[in-house]
């Protein structure tokens, strides 16, 4: 299971089975832990004496967790005056859901696109530094804090317990979750990887105000019980103290990926967008004296116009460093650490389901299309051929055969439009001719009775897709520029 988590950061990772660790060994009962976390929400009165506490929360409501320094004098002196890092998670409590966690979360993600399971309420929080909520980990938040200073973090849980139950009839019983906090100190390399303390508690999440109603219902039920029955149940406490538990099982994943922003090494995660543009055009070639000659030579040249330049595609031979640069250029920077050791070949082998599981539906589909080099279909495509070349070939056919041949072979070139503007057409034709757009004075379309109609944005927007045109050129008077005529 741990291996699966290394490649699926957006799923609820499998926690240690809390049913098996709720009773700590006797030697730990009086142990003074270095930290204590207190969730400011009342525990349920309907919990039996030797069971774990259960706390009801309202969906989307901000709840305070007090981060308390519980160290004895002289304990852990190396963190004095330094920050520690804490990671808060909301995970499944039931073993049944732990086994199907990925399917459960994917269903939730599709039903709630753009939402998170766990969020920080930063304006209400006190004493936290560099709060983070990784977009690929919907159930995790993290932050730095100084144990010597007052620290309170406010969290919001957005999923409700009944979202993960089989809806056969009304009044389904919601599933419990766990809130787990893991705290780490900084190692000699500046990474927060050395585990200090972990604690967790059991919760259920209801629709707004539902937790208050459930708490009231439990209280009323307990009031109806006999004194002998009440002795078998815990009293309700105003706050919930998280109890010590095993650290999060996939520690290597936590260290290397979940908190890339806290690394001080040169290889730490940074967000940087590349300067490349998929629609970047090469610089225009300076005008030459024989511009008309360039027109004549153009039809004999093999030209290729593509909506996206070749350097946008990731090659199988790309090294991991090249793959990282490609991810940056294509706006996948948040996932660079996830794919830190992936070469181009590794990335290209990923299936559509793989990338959706890793990056979520939105970015996953975008990444898959980018990896496979799938281009967005242009809004308009036209084909053009130069008239001078056609006339020359027709004359040559007549000379050789003594008669014109109607099945002459002509070379057309494709022009792809994205903006459907006259300026775009000028730039694309100039690129085909290998001249500056400034040398094209006007573009006309030959209309009825041979009239020349000025090409406008509206005219291009009304072109039929895959229309064919023959290009003719006229020298503009008093300048070195030319008119282009579409026939």
TrEMBL record:
GO annotations of cellular component type: nucleus
Protein name: Grh/CP2 DB domain-containing protein
Main location: nucleus
UniProt-recorded Gene Ontology molecular function terms: DNA-binding transcription activator activity, RNA polymerase II-specific; RNA polymerase II cis-regulatory region sequence-specific DNA binding
The family this protein is said to belong to: Belongs to the grh/CP2 family. CP2 subfamily.
Composition skew (Basic and acidic residues), residue ranges: 209-233
Cellular location(s): Nucleus
Native organism: Scyliorhinus torazame
SUPFAM superfamilies: SAM/Pointed domain
Record-annotated Grh/CP2 DB domain positions: 31-268
Keywords, alphabetical: DNA-binding, Nucleus, Transcription, Transcription regulation
Renumbered residue ranges of the record's region Disordered: 208-236
